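A protein record pairs a chain with a discrete description of its three-dimensional fold. The following entry can be read in just this way:
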Amino acid sequence: MTAQWKFDDIDASRTKKGGNPSGKAFDGNFETFVRESLQNSNDAAVEDRAEVLFDLKQLEGEEVEDFKDAIRWEEFEEHLQSVKENGRLKTVEEFLERLREENKLRLLKIEDRHTEGLGGTEDDDESNFTGLVKHELFSNKSDEGSGGNHGVGKSVYWDFSEIATVLFNSIPASKGIPDGKTPPRFFARTNLPSHEIEDDDGYILEYKGSGWLGQLDEIEINRETKQRAASIWGDKAKDLAGELYTQHDSETTGTSITVVGFSEPTSSWKEPAEVKNLIEDSAEEYFWPAMSEEMERLDVLIRDEGGGERKVKLKKHDDVNPFVECWDAYLSDDLDEKLESPGDVVKREFEIEIPGRTDNGEEAKTSNPVLLIRRADRDVETARQNQLAMFRSPGMVVKYKSYTNISVAARPFHAILVCGEAKRDDDISEGDEAFEKFLKNAEPPEHRDWKVTSDLKDNYKPGYRKLVDTTLPRKIRENLKDAVVPEPEEGERGPDRLASMFQMSKQGKGKDRSKQKFHFGSLGGHMRESRWEIKGFVEPDKDKIKSDSEVEIELSVTGEDGSKYNTIELEEISSELGETFVEDGKGVIKMKEGTQGADFEGKSKEIEEELKEDEIEMRISGREAGN
């Protein structure tokens, strides 16, 4: 039984493709590759523990020739040459030129262990095998806590191959082994653009693009018997995987995936040492929750120059260390009451309501995300200072969000938001389980945010948009602010008359609030170190404002008759829910259409002249964009 290539003929409609459509959802950088690779392996872990080895190898000379023999290069090359000539995948030309001139070939193997492996028959639509290797835009992940919901993350393997070719060798868990088969299982797929080849008789053969390396098999489709390539099993698979550098640890279940002609699509060629460093950095940056010693869910390994396996360890000097310490403090229940000193960690919880579901009838539930805040050393721990890391059960950071403008008086911090089933086992409620499912539906294909998606629209009752766009961001900010902003010193606040003046200045005397296009509230201010610090809330009237809008805030000195005779220039203005900047000494807040409202804070430049509190006035004006 010899492995052979079988390319799909073009269909009767002559539908052609220019490449891998699902790959267009991702940025073509190492960070993306590592995120998606580790997530796929992490999702498939058995007993909540996975091990992933990145093994970069560069073949030269005889190694290249042996590899070409094993991959049936004579069959395969004519398809690559056709793609090179039609120009639909530029990297194919670069690959073939490098191979011809330098006789070098780069491979990257990702070997996951203690995972489910690629089980199932050739045609089982619910199996890991068809989900990873065959189907497109089709997710087989049934676990609600898994990382993906779109079935496109796997596309990175082909995107990072200059010839869109990926090899698979797997030892499935026992329940996934088809009757009569013995592991391992080998299979390969190339995902080339459509192309044509002229045969010996001058006839033009047209191919859809997908090619499969395996043993030839027959299958009946729509009452027609057709030929295809199927998986190779047993010793034949083991031998072929060895020849193609896709070996797998025989003692553990899991899958080895080899990317042929590995290269970053959006960047220039990188040396092996640089590639390994980028892999390590990306793993640490986005998977520290799963990699932490307290969690022990994921081990990431890198093959070193001597052939050994080096475990990626989170170190004290890493940029993510403050987040790791924050996470470990929660897992070990070693928390503080207040943020009195750098390194202190406090916990805040808040309640949110998860809308009911339309797809399965689940009722609305209440969840309590955990917000953990660690006080930073302002001058030492500068990396990602004043940022929040957000994640759920798989232990991958979905997003880092900056809160540099939370308050002019805020203590420096690093914070994490622990959602859904990422909480400690004893703390997880039914509502947290519901929130886990909700957030999975709220992740776009690249898993870099929680936002309104078609999945939320299809599966949840009204309320999902408000939760994602308004409620969750506002409660995060409120609780962060409560933890990191100290109470102002008594004796520096202006008198009640000043607060009243801010309010009156804002609304105008005798105006009918119901007719206003903008509403303001919670206005106030106080003097601190010769500067005025102001705060307030502004909200466009959603029934009157149907576009983007902006608000301008001005501080001025007024006379006894209320006339303005000088301006106090603002130095800073901040708001979590709007774009902010200072222009000509005035604070400007820009808000997108539909914004529910924005808290704001600001600080003036230093004031040299002595002023009475009742001589300072805040004027606020709002307008629709373009007016």
